[in-house]
């Protein structure tokens, strides 16, 4: 299997699709947002440093997030999904170097395409497990938890992320457009980019991703 790098606006479904791929194919899901949220929860020095920035919806520094990611990747020996990194051109170039250094070669980039209005609706309906990070959505039938406020998988408490509110969502979306969206050209030129329509329901999005992984579909 190829390693997957997801590029997408906030709340486009990266976390949900990653969880499905992890379950079915044994991928390791690396969400840089989760790494940061854990650091905040554990009140590590990095956590204390990034807490306020994350609340605003802007990006944390490249150095901090790269340190966390590198630590994780260097310990890994199976296929992985990168969810949330790279977020800007500098990070994309750093990632090229990390891959070279660690001899990681078989990678594809999947862009989950969604419009701002739908992404905002998903963001505002999202609730996540405080314990394992699994994501649910109160506005989407197939993503509702079986019991209100309780994770189906580990029974942890479901909470709303501090950055899933209208004001912060707008900043996150603008940050995405300005910093992350230009990466699509970067990966297109490298012939690594695949496009998936993320407006469809989760199962269809998942099937499309699977078709790309198995080579049944050559592009978006
Ligand atoms: P996410 O869970 O991917 O939506 O990320 C939540 C927040 O974590 C973002 O709004 C950023 O503040 C921060 N973050 C996550 N990944 C990165 C990254 N690669 N570079 C900088 N900031 C990041």
Short description:
Helix content is 48%, strand content 15%. By secondary structure, it is an alpha/beta fold. The protein has a five-stranded parallel β-sheet with strand order 2-3-1-4-8, sandwiched between helices.
Output the strand order for the largest sheet: 2-3-1-4-8
Topology order in helix (H) and strand (E) letters = EHEHHHEHEHEEEHHEH
Largest sheet: 5 strands, parallel
Gyration radius, rounded: 16 Å
**End-to-end CA span:** 19 Å
Mean pLDDT: 95
Low-pLDDT stretches: none
DSSP summary, beta strand count = 8
Helix content: 40-55%
Strand content: 15-25%
Classification by helices and strands: alpha/beta
What ligand species are in this complex?
Answer: adenosine monophosphate
Q: Please, how many helices?
A: 9
Report the principal-axis shape.
globular
Structure write-up:
It is a single chain. The model has no long low-confidence stretch (mean pLDDT 95). The protein has 220 residues and is of the alpha/beta class. The strands form two sheets. The protein has a five-stranded parallel beta sheet, sandwiched between helices. The chain has helices at residues 14-25, 32-41, 45-56, 62-74, 89-102, 116-125, 166-180, 183-189, 202-214; strands spanning 3-7, 28-31, 80-83, 107-113, 126-129, 135-137, 158-159, 193-197. Strand 5 and strand 6 (135-137) form a beta hairpin. The longest helix is centred in the C-terminal third of the chain and has 15 residues, at 166-180. It is built from nine helices and eight strands. The protein binds adenosine monophosphate (AMP).
């Amino acid at each position: 299997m190829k390693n997957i790098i997801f590029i997408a606006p906030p709340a486009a479904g990266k976390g949900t699709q990653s969880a499905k791929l992890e379950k079915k194919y044994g991928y390791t899901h690396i969400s840089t947002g989760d790494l940061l949220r854990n650091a905040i929860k554990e009140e590590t020095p990095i956590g204390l440093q990034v807490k306020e920035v994350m609340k605003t919806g802007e990006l944390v520094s490249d150095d901090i997030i790269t340190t966390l990611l590198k630590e994780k990747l260097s310990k890994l020996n199976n296929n992985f999904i990168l969810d949330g990194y790279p977020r800007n051109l500098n990070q994309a170039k750093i990632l090229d170097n990390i891959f070279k250094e660690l001899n990681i070669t078989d990678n594809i980039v999947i862009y989950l395409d969604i419009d701002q209005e739908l992404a905002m609706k998903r963001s505002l309906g999202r609730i996540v497990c405080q314990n394992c990070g699994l994501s649910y959505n109160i506005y989407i039938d197939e993503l509702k938890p079986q019991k209100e406020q309780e994770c189906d998988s580990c029974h942890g408490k479901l909470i709303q992320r501090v950055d899933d509110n209208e004001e912060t969502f707008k900043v996150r979306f603008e940050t995405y457009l300005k910093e992350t969206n230009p990466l699509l050209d970067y990966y297109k030129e490298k012939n690594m980019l695949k496009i998936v329509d993320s407006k469809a329901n989760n199962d269809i999005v998942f099937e499309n991703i699977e078709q790309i992984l198995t080579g049944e579909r050559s592009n978006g």
